[in-house]
């Protein structure tokens, strides 16, 4: 999934990006309100992690602007202020959740997982298709009860495909969700990761199908 982090405190921003990157997400990091708005104008995101206290324009104003623009991506607001009024303001202006600083990164990751499951994906922390099971909490994968060793980006790709079985994802959509602005994947990156997944998951009662000229989909092997 592709996530926008908007945080001006360098050490906090670096830690959040590292935490989300470790989970296999593509992460873009902006440090000011105007820069966040510029990123939102040119890129679609699955989630926005938004600090309240930002240079140029505060997080509340950014939040109001993105909702006014019709951007429906879930927003997790970060605030150093624990007053109830700030939390109510965040929710009233369109936030989906909030965290008060300082926070435990295990809670951040749990809230991110919960928000990413909302828009059409699985409602459970375990995704199953055929005999393939992906545990979104431990980021582990098993086939027929056998644990399979995958890289974080392979798990991220599998998560995207399995969370919406039979949906056809174009190569461009997958590249967009797997890599951030500061990464420059080759044209064949998706083909490479799909080939690796197919090899590592065999034998499985799930397959990643290639629809020539369209993209890829995850289906059970008994799906016609």
How do you describe this structure in short?
This protein is an alpha/beta fold and 224 residues long. The protein is built from eight helices and eleven strands.
Strand and helix order: EHEHEHEHEHEEEEHHHEE
Helix content: 25-40%
CATH architecture of the largest domain: 3-Layer(aba) Sandwich
Number of E-type strands: 11
Q: What is the CATH superfamily of the largest domain?
A: Response regulator
The CATH topology of the largest domain corresponds to Rossmann fold
Core attributes:
224 residues; alpha/beta; Rossmann fold; Arc Repressor Mutant, subunit A; 2 domains; five-stranded parallel sheet; four-stranded antiparallel sheet; 8 helices; 11 strands
Word description of this protein:
The relative contact order is 0.12. Strand 8 and strand 9 form a beta hairpin. This protein folds into two domains: 116 residues, 3-Layer(aba) Sandwich (Rossmann fold); 95 residues, Arc Repressor Mutant, subunit A. The strands form three sheets. A five-stranded parallel beta sheet has the order 2-1-3-4-5, with helices on both faces. Strands 6-7-8-9 form a four-stranded antiparallel beta sheet, covered by helices on one side. A two-stranded antiparallel sheet has the order 10-11. The model has no long low-confidence stretch (mean pLDDT 88). With 224 residues, it is of the alpha/beta class. Helix 2 runs parallel beside helix 3 and helix 6 packs across helix 8.
